[in-house]
Design goal:
The chain is α+β, with helices and mostly antiparallel strands. Helices cover 42% and strands 17% of the residues. The chain has ten helices and seven strands. The protein binds adenosine-5'-triphosphate (ATP).
Length: 281
């Protein structure tokens, strides 16, 4: 069992560099983490100081959970400077947000790369599910790019630690309705099956070059559209086999009819293999 000290980092070991981005929990900086004379480039999330002590406890707990998740397609939690302001020290994803990367490389990346990204992220979610962890916020905005051939699910504990609804309704103003499974919209029900639905939306976003789903549809209308059988439409660069799989399986209205993540990993790997054969017969 990992003790509390396992995750703690001395603040002196971390040097903040330039600002990379701002989130609802505070700013994110590039940084250098020095451990036994070795310097590692990291991302440091500086949590806003006004966090309640109870929230801070939850943040630390969730940081612990995340520290135990070790997967090549999940941004690693390196450690935490625990006193206020809390610094979360994360593995750096040098190429930044997936959505921006996709829109910036529209038409430049090959279909194989898009399938590769989908595959990699599917293994990350499969890994979480095999550890009995439901993510609840799978979306392209929560994926980062480490290298041109490697994407990662970014840290996700915070939204979980600080009650999901509260996080979205308080600081973003709205739930991510367009990503949610119908049972999540209707009953706030979250499960591995609702993660599967959300993962389908993420795959759709990858092939849409970072465009968001249900464009032109207002949030209040989304669940009605889903109930009448409508689904996000295929974008030109999404392989038909992938879109058909999403529509007929992943986005099944009834949660129990959706495939499990391991099945999705298998299907995406098959698509990747097919693409390879087409490129080099
Ligand atoms: P959450 O995504 O949990 O709601 P948040 O909105 O507070 O948290 P993030 O979206 O995680 O903050 O981070 C803000 C920005 O900082 C991101 O959009 C991204 O550009 C950048 N960023 C975050 N983590 C990393 C990382 N590990 N490597 C590189 N850039 C990162």
């Amino acid at each position: 069992v990992n003790g509390e000290d396992d995750i703690r980092i001395r603040r002196e070991a971390v040097t903040l560099k330039e600002l990379i981005g701002g989130g609802q929990f505070g700013n994110v900086y590039k940084g250098i983490f020095t451990q036994s004379d070795v310097n590692v480039a990291v991302a440091v999330k500086v949590c806003k100081a006004e966090n309640e002590p109870a929230d801070m406890q939850l943040i630390l707990q969730e940081a612990h959970v995340m520290k135990n998740f070790k997967h090549e397609h999940i941004v690693a939690m390196i450690g935490v400077c625990a006193e206020n302001p809390i610094w979360l020290v994360l593995e750096l994803a040098p190429l930044g947000e997936l959505r921006q990367y996709l829109s910036g490389n529209k038409g430049v990346l090959s279909a194989s790369t898009q399938v590769l990204f989908a595959c990699q992220l599917s293994t990350a979610v499969e890994y979480l599910h095999s550890n009995n962890y439901v993510h609840r916020d799978i979306a392209a905005r929560n994926a980062l790019v480490s290298s041109p051939q490697c994407v990662k699910l970014s840290d996700f504990g915070l939204s979980r630690a600080l009650d999901y609804d509260a996080v979205y309704t308080a600081s973003r103003g709205k739930l991510p309705i367009k990503w949610l499974a119908p049972e999540s919209i209707l009953y706030r029900a979250f499960s591995m099956s609702s993660d599967v639905w959300m993962f389908g939306i993420l795959v759709w976003e990858i092939f849409a070059w970072g465009v968001k789903p249900w464009s032109g549809v207002s949030n209040v209308d989304v669940v009605g559209r889903i109930e009448t059988g409508e689904r996000p439409v295929r974008t030109p660069d999404c392989p038909e086999s992938v879109h058909d799989f999403l529509v007929h399986h992943v986005w099944a209205f009834e949660a129990h009819k959706r495939p499990v993540m391991s099945e999705i990993v298998r299907v995406l790997q098959e698509v990747a293999d097919q693409l390879k054969r087409w490129v080099r017969p």
